[in-house]
Amino acid sequence: MRVLAFLDGTLADPDKAHIRIDDLGIVRGDGVFETILISNGRPRELGPHLDRLARSARLLDLPEPDRPAWERVVRTVIDNWQGSDEFALKLVMTRGIEGDPEGKPTTFAVGMEVDEKAKRARVEGIAAITLDRGIDCDLVDRAPWLLLGAKTLSYALNMAAVREAARRGASDVIFTANDGSVLEGPTSNVIIARGRTLYTPPPTIGILKGTTQGDVFRAAERAGWTTKVEPLRADELASADGLFLASSVRKVTRVHTLDGIVLPDATEIHTELARIYESQYE
Amino acid sequence: MRVLAFLDGTLADPDKAHIRIDDLGIVRGDGVFETILISNGRPRELGPHLDRLARSARLLDLPEPDRPAWERVVRTVIDNWQGSDEFALKLVMTRGIEGDPEGKPTTFAVGMEVDEKAKRARVEGIAAITLDRGIDCDLVDRAPWLLLGAKTLSYALNMAAVREAARRGASDVIFTANDGSVLEGPTSNVIIARGRTLYTPPPTIGILKGTTQGDVFRAAERAGWTTKVEPLRADELASADGLFLASSVRKVTRVHTLDGIVLPDATEIHTELARIYESQYE
User: Fold this and answer.
1) Where would one find the signal peptide in this protein (chains A, B) (predicted)?
2) Searching chain A, which residue's CA lies closest to the CA of residue B132?
3) Contact B29 A33 (CB under 8 A)
């Protein structure tokens, strides 16, 4: 089951071709995207996702996304969805056709089933590896043209990192900076638990502001946890009481093995966080 | 005038949609490409371009490109071209449709007119700026998952760098590494002339091996120049006798202004190099 709608609300067949070969989304990976979890007809964290889409667009000098139109198209996809109760909704905005004098972006939203691997990861946890991202934490300010902190369609390196994880018997990655700071996953944010406190690194070091991570933090605070957004060192990951990757589709996924080392059992913490997070949507 | 052909030799209308919204080329910038200059029905440096396509594919764990098929499709586009004597031919290979169990790449070749801006740049030269690429020169070996040295479809940052140049009144960029080494342009290689010697930085520092640069160097050697592939420092650029950006479409383009400073007049050197380069194809 998939539902494809363009930003003007037109529905289209996702199995047919709709993109030209000279769309800058394909020839240059030049565009931005968001992936939103829809559960029981309700988008999770739609506001933060649209905020981030707008921020990414701004960093790429793309036109400001038409927020009411995106809100409407999200609703259109949801209204036409007839698959599982929970599904992933991807919003895509490319720079449009190369050389188009009007510079009209290509814009669409597509609803897709959550893949089985992601569902299994939510329950069973995953093995992850740390990988050098080769950057300094101040690079985002020093060199904004590198688009750190923008969620662009240029994800080839993120995908290559995940393949490197697979080669090493793992399924996900935590990127680290030159100074040993924890950055983010290729498609997730990092959260650690220490006692009754949750930690995540700050977006100011050149990573995406986490939508699911933010949602988990707010829910945890309401449930009596303390939350801190502050730099983390890679060598703190293995010694934490719990290590998690947060993303819209995988929710809070427990990392049970890091760089081949089995981590202390964080099943209980994960169960609690997953319950706290989920209870907001019941 | 444009000619589009898929790798199987089928011709198609480039103004129609041929790509699905779930092609990994668009949703992840996950694929590789080459741009080849065709002049008078003859592709320039086809062998090195196909070598580099294969190398990029290998770095991305894509299937080995079918070289005879690519050679045939290049010929198909050339045979169907009815535009200017000189045109740009882009080869694109994406990872194909997301979740496709066969993992069949999307592959096409498209011939396009060389844009007027590039033609003007060949004659008039350009202003460029140096921009921090935020990486170390040994990163390519240390972190192959970053895909440095692969020509991928994930070019959003390269395009952002060119927009930054425009904001600073220039039209192109020379990326520099953390140690002040000269890397490459977003879509070109850097060449400097000092006396009768041409210099370009080595691919081992994490940049693309230049096809046009290689061609220019071979032609220059035959004409009595010495050529050296060795690290260059950014502070050497302005003091060289000539600074050039080499790319298939723009050929050898003279940089007349760097970071706002007008460089010594290298018109004569440029004229000589352009003549040497071009004379191979006469």
Assistant:
1) none
2) A143
3) no
